[in-house]
Amino acid sequence: MHIHKYEKIWLTFGIGCLVVFLTVVGVSAFASGQQPPSCLTTIDPEKVDTTPPFNQPGLVKKGNNEYELNIVVAAFSFTPNAIEIPKGAKVTINVTSKDVIHGFEIPGTNINMMVEPGYINSLTTTFDQPGEYTILCNEYCGAGHHMMTARMKVVD
Ligand code: CUA
Q1: CATH match for 45-155 among 3.10.129.10, 3.40.50.10860, 2.60.40.420, 3.40.630.30
Q2: Which of 58, 118, 150, 155 can pair with 81 through a Cys bridge, CB separation 3.0 to 4.6 Å?
Q3: How far is C-alpha 127 from the chain's CA centre?
Q4: pLDDT (tens digit, 9 = 90+) per residue, 131-155?
Q5: 70 within 8 A of 58, measured Cβ to Cβ
Q6: In this structure, are residues 135 and 68 in contact, taking their beta carbons and an 8 Å threshold?
């Protein structure tokens, strides 16, 4: 069977692209451990106050230098709204909303989550810079949206 020269070039190019693509996806998924956001953890938004861990919001020590920070978000507040975190600790932040969609952003860091009622959004991070941070809502959620903030202190 005769294959035209241009056809061979395009076939090689196409298969080459496929190999590169699958390698990139494979390495990032299996070697680097990257995965889609955990948007499938659900919660009844009307029972947030009685569902662990959100029935006792705040910082919980989970291990040696490892913490969990559970925050309940509702119009127009974060609970707790003054948080202290040890510098260099591994912190998993869990957030959920009791009413509408809110945002959870800490300017100056790469932390930015959407807070949806019915879902628990999480991320794990480490704060290496001591200082005061502001947590703010960046999704328009009503009349008090512009006042919806909390303070976080990273301490030595
Ligand atoms: Cu909550 Cu904007």
Answers
A1: 2.60.40.420
A2: 150
A3: 14
A4: 999 999 999 999 999 999 999 999 9
A5: yes
A6: no
Q: How far is the CA of 13 from the centre of ligand 1 (A)?
A: 49
Which atom belonging to ligand 1 lies closest to the Cα atom of 141?
A: 2
Q: What share of the chain is helix, strand, coil (3-state, %, to 5)?
A: 25, 40, 35
Indicate which residue's Cα is closest to atom 1 of ligand 1: 102
- Per-residue pLDDT of 58-87, as tens digits, reads 999 999 999 999 999 999 999 999 999 999
* Separation of CA 77 and ligand 1 centre (Å): 8
Quote the CA–CA distance of 89 and 53 in Å, as a whole number.
20
Radius of gyration in angstroms for the set of CA atoms belonging to the chain, rounded to a whole number: 22
